[in-house]
Amino acid sequence: GSYPESLIDFRAIKSHQCSTVFNIMTKQEMESRQLTENLEQMHCKQTNLSYVPFPIADDSIDKMTDKMF
User: Fold this and answer.
1) pLDDT digits (tens, 9 = 90+) for 7-47
2) Which residues lie below 8 Å from residue 44, measured CB to CB, with a gap of 6+?
3) What's the pTM?
4) Mapping DSSP to helix (H, G, I), strand (E, B) and coil, where does residue 21 land?
5) Cα–Cα distance for residue pair 46/21, rounded to 1 Å
């Protein structure tokens, strides 16, 4: 689904028995949505969710493969 942007979104994720937010947005994508990694981590901590940043630029398939393996 769409990326959570507020504490309400994180609470909704938790209510569906999810345990982790896996963020694939780059820093630039997050900035364009006026989000910060610190805020995301704070929301996760407040809702007892794990937070995993794994930024993937849409134009870097080769770089993504290198990161994964």
Assistant:
1) 999 999 999 999 999 988 888 888 888 888 888 999 999 99
2) 10, 21, 50, 51
3) 0.71
4) strand
5) 13
